[in-house]
Amino acid sequence: MATSTLDNRTSYKYKLGTNRLGLWLFLLSDAFFFAGLLISRFYLMGFTRPHLDQTLGLIVTSVLLISSFYMNRAETAMAHGDQKTFLRGTLITLVLGVIFLVGVVGVEWQLAPFGPGDGAHGALFYMMTGMHAFHVLTGVIFLVIVYRNGRKELYTAEKHWGVEACATYWHFIDVVWIFYYPALYLIGTVVG
Amino acid sequence: MDEKKKVNFLKLGLVRGIIFQVVGSIVGMGIVMLIRLLMGLPAWNAEPVWVGGTFVGVITFLIGVGAFSDWFKWAKGEKTSDHHEADPSLPGWAKYYSISLDHKVIGIQYGVTSILTLGLAGTFAMIFRTELAASKLQYIDLGTFNSLIGLHGIVMIAAILLGIGAMSNYLVPLMIGASDMAFPRLNAFAYWINVPGALLVVSSLFLGGFDTGWTAYPPLSARAPLGMQMFFLGVYVIGLSSILGSLNIIVTTIRMRAPGMNYFRMPIFVWAAVATSIIGLTATQFIALSFQMVMFQRLLGMGFFDPTNGGNVVLFQHLFWFYSHPAVYVFILPGLGMISELLPVFARKPLFGYKWIALSSMAIALVGFFVWAHHMFTAGMEEYLRVPFMYSTMLVAVPTGVKFFSWVGTLWRGKISFPTPMLFTLGAVSIFLLGGLTGPPNATVATDLHLHDTYWIVGHFHATMFGGFIFPFFAALYYWFPKMTGRMYNEKLGKWHFWLMYPAFYVQSLGQMRIGLLGMRRRIADYDPALNFDFSHLLITIAGFVIFASVVIFLVNVWMSVKRGEKAGTNPWNSRSPEWQLPTPIPEHNYADHPFEVVGEPYDYGLEGSTYIKMSAASKASAAD
Amino acid sequence: MKHFFRVAVLVAILTVLIGFGLDNSGYMPALASVQGAAIDALFRKHIWVISFLFSLISGFMLYSFVAFRRKPGEEGDGDHFEGHTGLEIAWTILPLGIVLYFAFLGAAALAETRRADPNAHKVTVVGSQWSWRFDYEDYGFSSTELRLPIDQQSLLTMTSTDVIHSFWVPEFRLKQDALPGEGMERELRITPTVIGDYKLRCAELCGLEHAYMVSDVIVMEVSDFEKWVAEQTEGPSDDPIERGELWYEQYGCQACHSIDGSDRIGPTWAGIFGTEELLTDGTTIVVDREYLIESIVDPQAAIVEGFETIVMPPTGDSMTEEQIHDIVDFIESLAE
Ligand code: HEA
Ligand code: HEA
Ligand code: CUA
Ligand SMILES: [Cu+2]
Question: Where are the transmembrane segments (chain A) (predicted)?
Answer without folding.
Answer: 21-43, 55-71, 91-111, 123-147, 168-187
